[in-house]
Amino acid sequence: MPAKNVTKLxxxxxYYHLFNRGVEKRIIFQDDxxxxxxxxxxxxxxxxKEELIDALPQSSIVERIEREQQILRMNNFHNNITLIAYCLxxxxxxxxxxxxxxxxxxxxxxxxxxxYTMYFNRKYDRVGSLCQxxxxxxxxxxxxxxxxxxxxxxxxxxxxxxKGETFKxxxxxxxxxxxxxxxxGWIHPEEILGQFNQTSNPNNAYQDYVETDVANExxxxxxxxxxxx
Length: 229
What we know:
Alpha-Beta Plaits; 9 helices
C-alpha cells in the first residue's frame, strides 16, 4: 500500500507542503556546517545563475572560470519553484513551495537530496540513503490552509529559539525573514505577509499570529498524518 501523503502526480501552478526525515529517525543535521551547507544548496537552486555568478568572491581567473562553469552546469529551479517557508530540525525538514511546472518539485527534491546526501556521506564516512523513503507531499488547496501551514512550520522554529538559536543569524528557518530580520532573495514571504497589509506593521502582526497560544486546529486534517518526531 502506498505511504500516506506521497504525492506522485503534482499539479502545475500549485502549492505543496513537502517534508521528510532521516532514515530510522536519524539526525541529518549534526552541526552548524550541515545546516549551512543545506541552506547554501537551497540558495544555489533557487537563485538565478547570473546572480550567483555576480556574487562570486574575487579569486584567480582560473578559479573563477571553474566556479562559473560549475554554476552553469548545475540544476536551477528559480523559475519553477518558489520557496514560501521552511524549517530545518535536527532529524527532519519542512518546505512550503509553489511550483510552476508539474514536474518541478520532483526534480528539485531529487537534486537537493542527492547533493546533500553525497556531502553528508563523505563527511561522516557512511553509505546509503540519508532520508526515510521518498519525500512526502501534501497539496495545499486554499489560501487559509496556506496561511495556517506557515504558522505550523514556524511554530517549530520557535523550538529553535527556545533552545538558544539567534534568529538574526539562524539559517534553520524562514521565520527571521518574516520578522524582517534580514532579506533573503530565495525566500518569498510576500504572499503571506500580504494578508496582514491592513495592519500598520505586517511583520509584527504575523509574529503575533504565529506566537499566540491559540491552537493551530484549522490545519489539523492536513497535518495529522505527518507524525515527524
